[in-house]
C-alpha cells in the first residue's frame, strides 16, 4: 500500500492553527505518510509536526466555505485547524482519519524513521536479562537463567530468557506453564539483596471450579521460601472476582495446597474502567468554566486518584512484606500483564535506589513492562478522547507513571530524573518515532524485526 | 496563676492521632502561658509546648477504659488528644484551660510576659524595622497629586484608621469629613497602594450609607478627586467585593453601594467574596476533612469540595487579579470596599499589591504589606482571631485566607518570592500566638493606648533576625524575572488551586513530603558559599606565597642558581598549611538521598491514605510512616493478611494492618 493513495490533498495554504495558550499561526498545511505538518514559512517560527499515530479523535465543522478540524491527540493536546475550502477540509479530514488508524505495525513511523542524531548506543541490547541476572548472581546461587521460552513456545508473552529458581528444571517449568494463565509461570521480578527475599510474578493459577492443583507450581514457589518462613501471595483482584474467575477456569491459590503462603486480595481496577476514568479526568481538566467546585467534584467522579491510591497502597504493602517482614512475595491478577506489573515495578521503585536513576528506570521499564509482556499496542491504541470503548484499551502504563510521579512528589530528592522523563515516556508509549513500545510483547516485536529500528532508550 | 487548678498531672497519655494504640505516656504541666507535655521515655523526654492563646477548643470526650480523654484543637491546626487517668484531674485541667485559653484582659496575653532578652534599645529598633512612612516614600509619595493628610490626627475622623493617611491633593478636609460621614464607621476613601509606573492608585474605604436613594456630594467629590489624581485615566473602578445580594440587603439598613448615576465616571463592579461567617464555616468543614482518620479518595475530594474553601480562595485571588489588571493594563484607579472595609478589602488590596509590585514579594516588603493593609488600616485582629474572650461570631480566618492566597501564588511563581512557605506558616502562627505585640488589638488607636511598642516586642524584628530560615533559594533577584506584575493565566485552570497540606496538616509527622527541596537547596547554597569563601582565602594566600617566593628567588638568584621547586615547597608547607576538614566543615544535607549510601534506602510510603492527592495530587498521606515507625508496625504486620477464603473485605485487612 502506498501512503499516497490515502492522501487526497497533500497541501493546503492559508490554514490557521489554534492552540490553547499560544497565538494563532497561519501557514501551509502538508500531509505526509506519517505526519501532519503546519509551517508558517517564516523565519524563526516553530513548525507543528504531528504524528498521525498521535491523533486520538477528530471533529469537523463548517461555517460557510471555512472548514474547521479539531484534532484531539493521544497526549491530551487539542488543536484546531481552520481550512479554507470545504473540499480541502473534507479531504484532509478523511486522510487524517485513514492515516491515524493504520493497522499494520510495519507501516508505523518507527520503520521509516531515520534519526538526525548519532545513535550512540544500541538500545535493543542495553537491558538484557543476562545483565540483570549478573547483578544478582554475586549475591545468590538459588536462581538461574532459563531458556525454556526460547521459541516463545511455552509462554508467548514472556521473553526468551527468564530467571527462575535453580531447583526447577525446564521440564517442570513447562508443566507449571500449563497451570498458569497464558503460560505465565512464576518468574523472578526482583531480588532484594538486603535479605535475599524476592518478588515473583505470574498469571493466575488455572484451578477452575474443581480445585485443580499442580505439584510443580507449588514446588516452584516454595523453592523461594526459607525454612519456617511464610510468603505472601498478593492477588490484585478482590476475593469475589477471584472466586468468579474459577468459573472460567482461572482461580487463586487454595490455602490447603499452599500452606506456607498467606494470600492478600487487593482491588486494582483494569480495562475499560480505567479508560473511562481517564476520559472523565481529561474532561475535567479541559473544563473551561471558572468553577472551582465543579472541578473537585469532577475530579472525584473520575475516580482517577482512587485508582492511584489503590495501586500505590498495594505496592507499599508488597514492599513492606518484602523489606520489613522478610517474606517472599508472589504477585498476580488474572493475566499478570497489567495490575501485576504496576505493583511489581512500583515496589522496586520504593525498595531499590537504582530504579530511581534514569538508567535504572529505563531498565525497570524494559524488564517489568516490555519484556514482561504488557500489551502496549492494545492498551495504548486509544487515549482520553476515543469513542471506541474497546475493552483492551486501558491507561495502565499511564497510571504507573502517575504513581511514580506521586512518589517523586513525596521524595523529591530521591530521584535522578524529573517529571519530564515520565511525560516523555507517556508520549512515546502512545505515539513515537521509536520502536520501543510497538507490539504487545517480545515475540511480536521479534517477528516484526524491530531490531532494525530505533529504541527510545538508545 | 489563680486559674490553674492543678499544675501537674502524671501518667497522662498523648494519643497518636493516626494509630490510637500508640500513645506516649508522660506528665502534663499547666503554666501561666503554656500547656506542656513531657514524655516519660527517658532517652528522649520529648516535650510538646502549646501556648494558651493557640487553644481554639477543648472538648471532653466519652470516657474510655484508659481514662478520661480531652481533645484540644489549636488555632495553628494542631490537634492534641490527651487521656488523663483520673476524672478529677481531667476536670481540673479542662476548667483551667477553658479559662486560660480565654483571657479577658490584654495584660494576660503572653506578649506582656515574653522576654527575648533584648534591651530597650534593641526593642525600639525592632519596632522601627518596618516604617510605613518609608513605604509611602518608596511609592513616590507625596507628589503633585497625593498628599499626607492630618485630618485623622488624634483619630478625630475615624478611630479605626491610622493617623497618617494619603489622600488626593484636591480632597480638602471638608470633602474628607463629609465623605466620612457617608461611609460605614466613617472609613472614608484613602490610599492603599500607589503604582508609580503609571500614576494609578488603589484606594480603600467602607460601604457608602446610600440606602435606596441617599447621596452625598462630598463623597462624590472625593471619588472624583481620586480619579483626577491619576490624570491618564478618565474613569475609576469602584469594586464592591461582596456578592451583589449581600450588598443589596445592606441597602435596607441604610447602607449599600454606589449608584453609578450619582458618581461621574465610575465603573461599578461586584466581586462575590463571601462574608466572615461563611468563611468561618468553610474552614470548619475543611478542617473536619483534615481530621478524617483514613478517608477514601472520594471522602477527601468530596469533603474538600463541599467545604468550598478553595472556591473562596479563588474568589479572593480573582478579585486581586481584576484590580491588578485594571491598574497595570487599563491604567485605571480602583476604589475597593466591602461592608466595613477591613476584611475582604484588606485581602483584596493586599493581593492586588502583591501581584503588582515585586517589592511586596520580598521578605521585608511582605512585612510592610501586612503592616500597611492589615495592621494600620484597622483589621480587627483581636476579634477575628479571638485573642481575648469575645463574640465567637466575630472570629473568622480572614488573614489565613490571604496567607493561603500568597502560598497559591508562590506555587504558581516559585521564583518570584524572596521568602518561603515557612515564613508564611510562622506569620500565621504568631498572629494567633500573641507572643509579639504586632497583631494585638483591633486598631492602631487601641495599640497606642496600650503602649504596645513600649511593653512588647515586634515579630518583624524576630523574623528578620532569623531571615536565613525564610529565604527561598529559587528566588530570582534578576529584574526581568521578578519586576512587574505577576500574570495569572486567563484561561480557566481550576486545578491550579491546591489543598495546602503544609499548613492545615503540618503537625502530622510523616505526612509532609519527607524531603524538603527548599532545605536541600539552602544547604547546597550555603555549602557553595563556604567553598567560594574558602577559594577566595586560598587564592589570597597563594598570591602571598607567590610574592614571598618571588622575593626569595630573587634573593637566591643573586647568590646561586636556585631550585625553584624547593623554594616553593618550603613556603607552601609553612604558610599554606590550613587543615580543612571538609567533612566536618560542610553541612550535611538534611534530606535522605540514595546517593548518600543510606543503608536503608527503601522509600517508606504510607500504607493507606494518599489523601492529599487533591487537586494538585501532591502526594502525601495520612499515614504516619517515618522510617523508624515502620519497624514497630510491621512487626505485627503479618497479622494483616486475611485468612484463606475468609471473605474479608479487602479494606478491613488493610485497617488491621494500619492499626496493628
From TrEMBL, chain A:
Source taxon at top rank: Eukaryota
Main location per the UniProt record: membrane
SUPFAM superfamilies, A to Z: (Phosphotyrosine protein) phosphatases II (SSF52799), PH domain-like (SSF50729)
GO molecular function annotations of the record: protein phosphatase binding
Subcellular location, record wording: Cell projection, Ruffle membrane; Cytoplasm, Perinuclear region; Endoplasmic reticulum
The keyword Cell membrane belongs to this UniProt entry's keyword annotation: yes
Domain spans labelled Myotubularin phosphatase: 123-458
Stated family: Belongs to the protein-tyrosine phosphatase family. Non-receptor class myotubularin subfamily.
Membrane topology recorded in Swiss-Prot or TrEMBL: Peripheral membrane protein
UniProt-recorded name of the protein: Myotubularin-related protein 9
Keywords: Acetylation, Cell membrane, Cell projection, Coiled coil, Cytoplasm, Endoplasmic reticulum, Membrane
GO cellular component: cytosol; endoplasmic reticulum; perinuclear region of cytoplasm; ruffle membrane
InterPro entries: Myotubularin, Myotubularin-like_Pase_dom, PH-GRAM_MTMR6-9, PH-like_dom_sf, Prot-tyrosine_phosphatase-like
Pfam family, one: PH-GRAM_MTMR6-like
UniProtKB/TrEMBL annotation, chain B:
Annotated CDD domains: PH-GRAM_MTMR7, PTP-MTMR7
GO cellular component: cytosol; endomembrane system; membrane
Residues noted as binding substrate in the record, renumbered to the chain: 275-276, 338-344
GO molecular function annotation: phosphatidylinositol-3,5-bisphosphate phosphatase activity; phosphatidylinositol-3-phosphate phosphatase activity
Subcellular location: Cytoplasm; Endomembrane system
Record GO biological process: phosphatidylinositol dephosphorylation
Domain Tyrosine specific protein phosphatases intervals: 307-351
Spans annotated as Disordered: 550-660
TM region(s), chain numbering: none
Broad class of where this protein is predominantly found: cytoplasm
SMART domains associated with the record: PTPc_motif
Active site: 338 (phosphocysteine intermediate)
Domain of life: Eukaryota
Keyword check for Ligase: no
UniProt domain Myotubularin phosphatase: residue ranges: 126-504
Biased composition (Polar residues): 566-596
InterPro entries the UniProt entry points to: MTMR7_PH-GRAM, MTMR7_PTP, Myotubularin, Myotubularin-like_Pase_dom, PH-GRAM_MTMR6-9, PH-like_dom_sf, Prot-tyrosine_phosphatase-like, Tyr_Pase_AS
UniProt KW keywords: Cytoplasm, Hydrolase, Lipid metabolism
Topology with respect to the bilayer: Peripheral membrane protein
Family from the record: Belongs to the protein-tyrosine phosphatase family. Non-receptor class myotubularin subfamily.
Entries under PANTHER family matching the protein: MYOTUBULARIN-RELATED (PTHR10807), MYOTUBULARIN-RELATED PROTEIN 7 (PTHR10807:SF35)
Protein name: Phosphatidylinositol-3-phosphate phosphatase MTMR7 isoform X6
Organism lineage: Eukaryota, Metazoa, Chordata, Craniata, Vertebrata
